[in-house]
Structure formats: C-alpha cells, structure tokens
Amino acid sequence: MDTIAALATASGRAGVAIVRVSGPRAWDVCQALVGRLPEPRRAALCRLRDGAGELIDEALVLLFDQGNSFTGERVAEFQVHGSPAVVRALLNAVTAQSGVRLAEAGEFTRRAFEAGVLNLAEVEGLADLLTAETEAQRRLAQRVLDGTIGRFLEGMRQDLLHSLAMIEAALDFADEELPDDLAQHIEAPLLRVMSRLQQELAGRRASEQIRDGFEVAIVGNVNVGKSTLLNALAGREAAITSEWAGTTRDVIEVRMEIGGLSVTLIDTAGIRDTEDQIERLGIDRGQRRAQAADLRIYLKADPADEVVVQDPEDIVLLSKADLWQAPGISGQTGQGIPALIEAIEARLMTRASNSSVFSRLRHFSKLQLAVSHLEAASEGLQQRDAGWELIAEEIRLAIRSLDGIIGRVDVEDVLGEIFSAFCIGK
C-alpha cells in the first residue's frame, strides 16, 4: 500500500500547520527529513531538511506505530509553522520520497475504516463532527463517533441471534416433541428489538432537524413588523424595512444559533389581497414555506386581532407593542425579544430531546428494512404456516440490515459517497 501525505489542518496562514504521513514508509520519511527517529508517541523538537540538505523548518514531530494510530498504520506527524511556503516545501520534500504520494479526499479515514479502527457509522459521525456548526450538531456527531450506534446494534443483534439459535435448534430436533411455548420464547426477543427500532425511527425527524437545522417562520399581515423583527433577532439588517406595505415580496432567510441549535429564520411576504402578480407569487411562496416550517411566529397588528394557529406550539405575539403600551414584542425597542428567543429555544429543545441515536437517511432506511423483516418473522410465528426456515431467513435478513449500518456488510455502494465528503487531510 502506498504511503500517503497531506496537510491535516486548514490551508492558508496559521500559527501552526500539521502535515500527516501514513503508511509503511511513514517512519522512513521521518528518518530522511530529521536524520533520526524520535521515540513513538512522544513529541520531539526537530529540524526538517529536504533531500538537498536545505532547512525547511523546525518542527514538533510525533510518531505512531502500527495499531496505535488513527489509520491503524505507521504515522508521522509534523507540526510546523503555518505559512503556505513552509507547508509547500515540506509536502514537496515528503512526496519526493519513493513510494509516497499526496492523499486523496477522505483517504486517511478510509484506511482507518479498512483497518477496523472505525466502523462505518463512526466514519459518518466523524464526517458530521467535522462539519458541525452548532453545539447540538457537535453532540449528535460525537454520540455517533464514540460508538453509541455500534453498542446499540450489538445488543439488538444478540437478541436476534438468540431467537435464531432457538429456531435452528427446532430445525435440528424437528422429529422430537418441542415445547409448547417455544414460539413465545422465539418471539419475545423479536418484539423487544422491534420496539426499540421503532422508537429510534420515531426520533428520525428530530435527528434530521438537529443535523440540517430547524426552520422558524415569521407570519403576519403586511406592514406588521415581520422584517423588523427578523433584523432584531438576527442582530443585523438582513431584510429591507420601510413604511410602505408589501416591501417584502420573497422569502428572506437568516441562519443563526439558538440554544445550541441551528435555526433558519424565515421572513415571509405580508398577507393581503393584491392585484400585483409578483407580490401575489411572493405571498403564496411565503405561505407554503411557513406551513412547512417547524415553528411559526404569528404577529398581530392589533390586540383585538384573532389568529388561527397551525400548531399549538406556534407563538402568537402583538407586534409593535411599544406603540400600544401592551404586552408583546417590538423589533424597534427590543421589547419582548429575550422572552421570544427563550420561547423558541424551549420549543425546539423539546423536539430535539426526542432525537434518535441514528442520524442519516441510510441508517433509517436500514432500520425500517429490519423492522419489516422482523414483522414478517413475527407474523410467521403467529400463523405457524410459514415454516421455521422462512422465519429464520427473515431474522437473518433483519440482522443483515442492521449489520449494514456499521459496515459489516453491503458497504461498497456507500463508501465512495461517504469518504468524498472529507477534506484531503482527513
């Protein structure tokens, strides 16, 4: 296998840059650049020189032996000053060595997967961790990366193997009298696993919202203060505001973090009857986005207005409350803004708390397939006409579906897509 090298930190100017080398010749590269091998897993301050003996930089050098590194291979890491010129000179010197080339996107992580250091779900968790923008996304990704999914699935797998073993015993002793409650002993673990998997499927929406973000729409009639409220929540002039009705004609989005959650605020066109076709299109588009949003904030122009909400969790507030001297919200003075942010956070955090340990469409597709096979197995047990062989096959297919989540089987079709999302140095 080739030895690969790449910049493991962000490109551009920085105080420190890390160049990682992994593969059978990683330590040979270190020997060539440093002139000696530091003690593994102990940082050493060394001078790096290219093939012509020219000084590249003074660096901290770390060596990791096979089986004790991220990739499972021998690894050398060089922590140098983070100028593009230093990094370029170092990579040139490294790849000048025989059998060493620049890494492809995600190749370090792929080698970790192939060496058994990470399973497929943990690889996906690492990809999510690298792109996490909010605290909730970080926690979700870290939960996947630390092996939670693997441990959960192993428990499910053991239950299913127990049922399968009893069926195999029934097949081996088919000529003998079997216990009357054998089917119940086989079915109990199946039902237990189905229940757990259905709970995780129920948390799919919350997990997707944490990964992709929640949408909160601001809804109301024209000139009620929606854009002013959006600007106040965003802390900047994200939307044009004026005293003229119908200023907002399209959906305006602002992405922000509330309570550690990624939230997209949506300013919609004000609702009114109009002959203007462009404004009419904007109103219709805004209403569709508002209906599809996770939460809506309805603004009232008058305390006497009545609002019919789409969801009991939706928030109804009197806008421009400073002009009415009444409880409500004002984007101009900031009245009610902190309380509104707290209300949004409370509602979204409640939904996020019901999230699954799984996080990706691929995971949930496999879970649903496993449930379908277990339902077929349970139905066969109840009807007693499917035969032990067919019931056993449904259980095997369920196990295969669960194994596919962590990469025991059926991984080749997803490997390229997963690893292409990584940066070159990972």
Structural class: alpha/beta
CATH superfamily of the largest domain: tRNA modification GTPase MnmE domain 2
Order of helices and strands: EEHEEEHEHHHHHHEHEEHEEHHHHH
Number of helices: 15
Helix content: 40-55%
Q: Using the coordinates shown, work out and report the CATH topology of the largest domain.
A: Four Helix Bundle (Hemerythrin (Met), subunit A)
Through-space gap between termini = 17 Å
Walkthrough of the structure:
The protein has 426 residues and is α/β, with parallel strands linked by helices. It has three domains: 3-103, Probable tRNA modification gtpase trme, domain 1 (Gyrase A, domain 2, 2-Layer Sandwich), CATH 3.30.1360.120; 126-203 and 358-419, tRNA modification GTPase MnmE domain 2 (Four Helix Bundle (Hemerythrin (Met), subunit A)); 213-352, Rossmann fold (3-Layer(aba) Sandwich), CATH 3.40.50. 47% of the residues lie in helices and 17% in strands. It is built from 15 helices and eleven strands. A six-stranded mixed beta sheet has the order 3-4-5-2-1-6. It has a five-stranded mixed beta sheet with strand order 8-9-7-10-11, sandwiched between helices. α6 (148-172) runs antiparallel to α7 and α7 (182-202) packs antiparallel against α13 (361-383). The longest helix is centred in the middle third of the chain and has 25 residues, at 148-172.
Brief overview:
The chain is of the alpha/beta class.
Descriptive terms for the model:
Rossmann fold; alpha/beta; Gyrase A, domain 2; 15 helices; 3 domains; 6-stranded mixed sheet; Four Helix Bundle (Hemerythrin (Met), subunit A)
